[in-house]
Amino acid sequence: MKAIAATGSPEPVTVAVRQRSPGLKVATFNVNGINGRLSVLLLWLKQAQPDIVCLQELKAPQYKFPVAALRAAGYEAVWHGQSRWNGVAILSRGSEPIEIRRGLPGNVEDEHSRYIEAAVKGVLIGCLYLPNGNPASGPKFDYKLRWFRRLIGHASTLLATGAPVMLVGDFNVMPTELDVYKPERWIDDALFRPEVRSAYQQLLDQGWTDAIRTCHPGERIYTFWDYLRNAWGRDAGLRLDHLLLSPTLKDHIVAAGVDREVRGWDRASDHAPAWVILSHLPSL
Questions:
Q1: Closest by CA position to 64, among listed 8, 6, 124, 113
Q2: What are the site positions for Interaction with DNA substrate (predicted)?
């Protein structure tokens, strides 16, 4: 194990670089502004060495995506940017993702940059940033439910291909009470409303596997800690970021988890990266 110095801190911070794990490591990271937190992203890439990364909340137009910096770090990318809001990207270590789809089908008038799909290293990856939906009820919540229905429809189409597929990203839903620090406080929130949790369950019922929950069935695991009310210090977190695997990938799970320490870094996103390691993949 070797060490590198973190940047962007008043004093250098030494961070251990993990040895590369066998198999394919796929991660998701809501970066909450890719250019403002580029040093955090690059440091995490150096430390964690994922093979495929899905990013959300780029908050950058198409032409301001930091492709050169990521390429220097060893990653090629496809991305779907949007000025100030949203934005998704798929990174691939040492190879170029083959873009399949830009935008979720079902509404040609939806201009939000929330979905991109690519073939990467033998897997079809759908990277998504599902709408927040607050306040609920209201127009934003209705849009969230409509978007979720479109996702469910497209997910069914992807499964019908029989290909190894993953839906990865910030789903903006806590599926169960185990995924939220105080469930009673979130009953009326758009991230925890019964309609949203039911939609997530509909996805799973199609045959998708929640990688993190499969590896940690009874453990309280979070991927998000708000900047407000010292949520990180109190460990008042939420599990919003998920990696869903099609049936052909379920038996290839080696491990899954969250790099929660990244949330404590200087200039950190309010999300931490989540990941899964797969082995012995079938061919796409």
A1: 113
A2: 271
Tell me the C-alpha to C-alpha distance, in Å, between residue 23 and each of 49, 77, 217, 281.
Answer: 12, 20, 22, 8
The pair of three-digit structure tokens given for residue 181, joined into one six-digit string: 């620090």
Task: Answer yes or no: 181 catalytic.
Answer: no
Structural domains of the chain, ranges and CATH numbers in brackets: 2-278 (3.60.10.10)
Q: Is the pLDDT of residue 194 over 60?
A: yes
Q: Is-catalytic flag, 170?
A: yes
Helices (H), the chain: 38-48, 67-72, 139-160, 194-206, 211-215, 231-234, 247-250
* CA nearest to 243, candidates 163, 96, 128, 101: 128
Single out the catalytic residue among 51, 170, 189, 259: 170
Q: What is the DSSP string of 215-277?
A: HSTT----SEE-SGGGHHHHT-EE--EEEEE-HHHHTTEEEEEE-GGGGGSTT--SB--EEEE
List CB contacts of 233: < 8 A, sequence separation 6 or more. none
**Does 270 belong to an annotated binding site?**
yes
Torsion angle of alpha carbons 27, 175, 128, 97, nearest 10°? 30
What integer pLDDT is reported at residue 18 of this predicted model?
A: 44
Per-residue pLDDT at 5: 31
Residues found in the chain: 284
129 catalytic, yes or no?
yes
Do you find a cis peptide bond into 50, omega within 30 degrees of 0?
A: no
What would the pLDDT profile of 54-98 be if each residue is shown by its tens digit? Answer: 999 999 999 999 999 999 999 999 999 999 999 999 999 999 999
**Residue 53 in tokens:** 């990364």
Mean pLDDT of 244-272: 97
Contact 1, 16 (CB under 8 A): yes
Determine if residue 230 is labeled as part of a ligand binding site. no
pTM recorded for the entire structure: 0.92
